[in-house]
Design goal:
The protein has ten helices and 17 strands. The chain is α/β, with parallel strands linked by helices and 472 residues long. The protein folds into two domains: 304 residues, Glycosidases (TIM Barrel, Alpha-Beta Barrel); 121 residues, Galactose-binding domain-like (Jelly Rolls). The strands form three sheets. An eight-stranded parallel barrel has the order 1-2-3-4-5-6-9-10, surrounded by four helices. Strands 11, 12, 13, 14, 15, 16 and 17 form a seven-stranded antiparallel beta sheet that branches. The protein has a two-stranded antiparallel sheet with strand order 7-8. Helix 4 packs parallel to helix 5 and helix 6 packs parallel to helix 7. It is globular. The chain starts with a helix and ends in a 5-residue tail after the last strand.
């Protein structure tokens, strides 16, 4: 009798304890993003601004010989830049504080080749001060590009130049507020064969601005996508094996696709200019990219697990040119129209749900909460997510996202539709990552299926959206 009572009590309390337990989430699969990298990925789209001495000499790569007085914007208005960028739906601005010619847009103590020795504002102007304040006013992130190559500085090519360059970063990162991205170009002078101390540069940046992500060909935080067309690979891992890579010397093909077995989390940034050149040239006023071209770039950058860094060459007045401004707004309108009506509603089911728990149910993929996700049991690397719209629905675009806080997982998936008798494959893809946008000719169906065909670990799908986007 005592034994039975004891067992009943144990069973009772054991039952209660099991009822109170939540199923464990999937373990992260390394590598995973840092908090700064994850925040950067959420930005998705921001502006590069090329502005400097080259703007006034009509060059792309200046030689560092033009007199500082050549730099003389007549109506500089960084608030107009910020206002335009904000209206265009971009999240920040990265400014070319110093390009290869060595001319600094702030009154640097490291060189005489800067705004302090120009006639603009009697040598008392400071572009970085103006722009950083404008970014804060309009709620934009502020980033800085400083080229290590310096075609003007007298000690460039000697080891002690590395200290000059580090000091330039120290000045900028200490005096203009929070910097979200530090952008290092890999360009070099083959004749002087300058050996850059990149590890020292990175350490300086992280010491002063630990939350800034550092861009270069080889990271350490984000990488170049391998081309200046703004196009990420159809397969695009945020993982990289960086052995043997450093800024200026990296495998462009590997940069474009990333490495499935990479040991570091280094996602891709896709840079491209809205015009043929990076700096403003009046003869390119009629050569601004079309909305259709920009949308194609968007789908192949943000829609392929990358961030889009779209360049604007500010003109000689010191303003975003009207042609560029108009196109940026039109591009924003086209994106808004494409993603206006999310059709992902109906009954969701899955071939496997982690612990059969509502915590990881298929519904979590469409609950508008990026922190929740559908997941499968450990070891289940093939599974499908099915959406029954309840009625015939026409669409041509599927947007899907992984919970990258737990690592990038999906290696292969397909989008399928039900024709009343069979499942038809409308698109076969590889990676997903932060965001994958899949386009195909419009289909009309009552059921959609996302079939995960291979994954590094159990898939974690945090978002599914469906659209009928205009075809441009």
């Amino acid at each position: 009798m005592i034994k039975i009572s004891t067992l009943a009590v144990i069973t009772l309390f054991t039952g209660i304890s099991f009822i109170g337990l939540k199923p464990a989430p999937p373990q992260p699969i390394a590598p995973v993003p840092s908090a700064a990298q994850a925040a950067w990925q959420e930005l998705e789209y921001y502006a590069f601004v090329h502005f400097g001495m080259n703007t006034f000499t009509d060059h792309e790569w200046g030689e560092g010989r033009a007199h500082p007085d050549n730099f003389n914007p007549t109506s500089l208005d960084t608030r107009q830049w910020a206002r335009t960028v904000k209206a265009a739906g971009m999240k920040g601005i990265i400014i070319t504080a110093k390009h290869h010619d060595g001319f600094c847009l702030w009154p640097s103590a490291t060189t005489e080749y800067s705004v302090k020795n120009s006639s603009w504002r009697n040598g008392r102007g400071d572009i970085l001060k103006d722009l950083s304040e404008a970014c804060r006013e309009y709620g934009l992130k502020f980033g800085v590009y400083i080229s290590p190559w310096d075609r003007n500085h007298p000690i460039y090519g000697k080891p002690k130049y590395n200290r000059v360059y580090q000091e330039q970063w120290r000045e900028v990162l200490s005096n203009y507020g929070e910097v979200f991205e530090a952008w290092l170009d890999g360009a070099n002078d083959n004749q002087k064969r300058m050996v850059y101390d990149f590890n020292g540069f990175f350490a300086t940046i992280k010491k002063i601005q630990p939350n800034a992500v550092i861009f270069s060909d080889a990271g350490p935080d984000i990488r170049w996508v391998g081309n200046e067309r703004g196009i990420a690979g159809e397969t695009n891992w945020s993982l990289r094996d960086n052995e043997g890579s450093f800024p200026g010397f990296a495998d462009e093909k590997a940069l474009n696709t990333g490495d499935e077995n990479g040991t570091s989390w280094i996602p891709a940034e896709c840079d491209v200019s809205i015009r043929p050149g990076w700096f403003y040239h009046s003869n390119e006023d009629g050569k601004v990219k079309t909305v259709a071209q920009l949308m194609e770039i968007y789908y192949k950058s943000v829609g392929r697990n990358g961030n889009l860094l779209l360049n604007i060459g500010v003109d000689r007045r010191g303003m975003v040119n009207e042609n560029d401004e108009l196109r940026l707004i039109e591009f924003k309108q086209a994106r808004d129209e494409a993603f206006k009506t999310n059709l992902a509603s109906g009954r969701l089911t899955a071939t496997n749900t982690r612990s059969n728990s509502t915590q990881f149910s298929p519904a979590k993929a469409v609950d508008s909460d990026r922190n929740t996700f559908w997941a499968t049991d450990d070891g289940v690397k093939q599974a499908s997510l099915e959406l029954d719209f309840g009625r015939e629905t026409e669409f041509n675009t599927v947007l899907i996202q992984e919970n990258i806080a737990l690592g990038q997982r999906v290696k292969k998936f397909s989008v399928e539709v039900w024709d009343g008798k069979n499942w038809l494959n409308v698109s076969s893809q590889t990676t997903i990552g932060h965001k994958r946008i899949v386009r195909f000719p419009a289909v009309k169906t009552q059921k959609l299926r996302i079939a995960i065909e291979d994954s590094r670990a159990c898939p974690t799908i945090s978002n599914l959206e469906i659209y009928k986007a205009p075809v441009l």
